[in-house]
Amino acid sequence: MIRSLRVRLMLAAAVLAVLFMLALLPALQKAFSLALQESIEQRLASDVTTLISAARIENGQLQMPALLPDERFNLPYTGLLGYIFDRAGQLVWQSRATAAQNINYQPRYDGRGNEFARIHQANGEEFFVYDVEIKLLGGKSAAFSIVALQPVRDYQRTLDGLREKLYLGFGAALLALLALLWAGLTWGLRSLRRLSRELDDLESGARDGLSTHHPRELLRLTGSLNRLLQSEREQRQRYRDSLDDLAHSLKTPLAVLQGVGESLQQHNGEREQARVLQSQIERMSQQIDYQLQRASLRKSGLVRHSVVLRPLLDSLCSTLAKVYRDKHVDVTLQVPDQARVPMEQGALLELLGNLLENAYRLSLGQIRVSLFREAGRLTLCIEDDGPGVPANQRQRILERGERLDSQHPGQGIGLAVVKDIIDSYDAELSLDDSALGGAAFRITFNLE
Amino acid sequence: MKLLVVEDEALLRHHLYTRLGESGHVVEAVANAEEALYQAEQYHFDLAVVDLGLPGISGLELITRLRNQAKTFPILILTARGNWQDKVEGLAAGADDYLVKPFQFEELEARLNALLRRSSGFTQSTIAAGPLVLDLNRKQATLDEQPLGLTAYEYRILEYLMRHHQQVVAKDRLMEQLYPGDEERDPNVIEVLIGRLRRKLEGECGFKPIDTVRGLGYLFTERCR
């Protein structure tokens, strides 16, 4: 299966051109050989006329001059042979050039006038023959067959030369045609290549939509795609805005309720009721956070996002450094400046924010973030020098995302959101010991 | 301490106003950024609590404007969404900490105290000057390890002076620590309070850390740690 459009078109065009030329070649050769034979016939006819005009009848006998006006009859090996036969087919004269030849030709004096033919000799040689029957010569009655011959050899050589030239010419024409076709296709497909480049930019987030400078045939497609992209973007934005509004309108009342609960506890001593109220408020709040973040941070389908990691890490670290400034945490970033992570900015920010805050909260003073790539996999690793996570609890912690829906009030939703985001991007989250002494969270993206 | 609370939800605003007042702060609680900007223009605040989801001018914009006006007091943001985009933007705009709604008041208070401590250069929850030690969490003063019986107003004045030790503090500034902006003020109250404080501090050990700088205000002369 050939996947390239250009190669397919080139192959089809090349096959067509070759077939066309193969059909054209014999027709051309045939036409040329006919034209050549005709010209040979005319020449032989004029040679015969030369013989006729040189011939005389004296005393009923044929008289030929010793030298003929056409030199070719006089010299051997010129290829032009002249013979005169009487009515009975007896050779009565032959030109000098025939000395070296022994031609087996028998004319038939049958009143048909002129005849042009091709004869075969026993030795395999072939000749064109022009045979003219005459009845009168110089006003006297005479019945002769006057014959001029020419070897087919020369004709064949010309024909072979022509065939060779035709093949060469057609080959060169084919090559030129294919080169022009390639150039034409390149020109024609340039817009497809540009479209593909624009799509790359689009997927990488470098542009918002496709340009309108495409050929008419593609405009419908790019127009539809742009509309689709636009509507997806708008829908996503609307969705996020409504989720934000929802968060605000649900959580502010919860904050009020929380305050009411605290007042109850403080002023009326309703300790138990207040505790129940507060745990329920916390649970609702976590559910809201979790479900809203989950809804807004999952991967979007159309555009393949990728984000430069470094600036995001820098801004998060400066935020956290401000919040945890009393702690004096030393953060080491082992991340190449331009390295990208195949995620949407918002999702990556939440993911990193949650993991880094965890690390800041638990570390004693050292955090390391590293990004490395090996064998088609990209691994982002966040380590701290805190207490770490005991091996028997790791699985439970990583599974918390799935179980948060049903239980575990009081636990932060950070890791649940992290897990959810990572799942939606088909990445993997693992947790083990860090060389720094604490926990190491590893996120692995499969790049293939 | 004088705090500015900017929260559009009336009940929550009232709750914060009441609870922070109970904790010994003077609170100005406003519903929008315009009012907050006006208050910040008029009075000297020690800290602001700003909700990010304000109507009109957003909380983020308010923080940016406050910082552009060279207001250096710490700002704690309240966010309903709790996402990192908000936190990063808020802190980049000039806030110092964040709290996600709903929150327990104790947590808010702990964060506010940490910010206040930090802004006056103290990292411990106590301020000490010679024999005098102030416990910022318990709002108690001890002199030679003996509890000092201070009224709430006296404590506020003392804490403010100690936080701004070795700086001249204007009488008006101390007044703001006692009353919200629109309340009737009697300038003699400060003189009376300072007089009572001096007597209590002098006590038996003769500790005299508060000087009067005529025409300017008061000066806590001891170095605080």
Automatic annotation (TrEMBL), chain A:
Membrane spanning residue stretches: 166-189
Keyword Phosphoprotein (UniProt): yes
Keyword set, alphabetical order: ATP-binding, Coiled coil, Kinase, Membrane, Nucleotide-binding, Phosphoprotein, Transferase, Transmembrane, Transmembrane helix, Two-component regulatory system
Principal subcellular localization: membrane
A GO cellular-component term linked to this record: plasma membrane
Record-linked Pfam families: HATPase_c (PF02518), HisKA (PF00512)
Catalytic activity: ATP + protein L-histidine = ADP + protein N-phospho-L-histidine
Compartment(s): Membrane
Coiled coil: 229-287
EC nos: 2.7.13.3
Molecular function as annotated in GO: ATP binding; phosphorelay sensor kinase activity
Name of the protein in its database record: histidine kinase
Species, as recorded: Pseudomonas fulva
UniProtKB/TrEMBL annotation, chain B:
Cross-referenced SMART domains: REC, Trans_reg_C
Pfam families: Response_reg, Trans_reg_C
GO molecular function: phosphorelay response regulator activity; transcription cis-regulatory region binding
DNA-binding region listed in the record: 124-222
Residue numbers carrying 4-aspartylphosphate: D51
Any single GO CC term annotated in Swiss-Prot or TrEMBL for this entry: cytosol
Residue ranges annotated for the Response regulatory domain, each copy included: 2-116
Family annotation (SUPFAM superfamilies): CheY-like
Record carries keyword Nucleus: no
GO biological process, one term: positive regulation of biosynthetic process
Alphabetic keyword roster: DNA-binding, Phosphoprotein, Transcription, Transcription regulation, Two-component regulatory system
InterPro entries listed in its UniProt record: CheY-like_superfamily (IPR011006), OmpR/PhoB-type_DNA-bd (IPR001867), Sig_transdc_resp-reg_receiver (IPR001789), WalR-like (IPR039420), WH-like_DNA-bd_sf (IPR036388)
Superkingdom of this protein's organism: Bacteria
Domain OmpR/PhoB-type: from-to ranges: 124-222
Keyword hit for Protein transport: no
Annotated PANTHER family: REGULATOR OF RPOS, TRANSCRIPTIONAL REGULATORY PROTEIN PHOP
Protein name per UniProt: DNA-binding response regulator
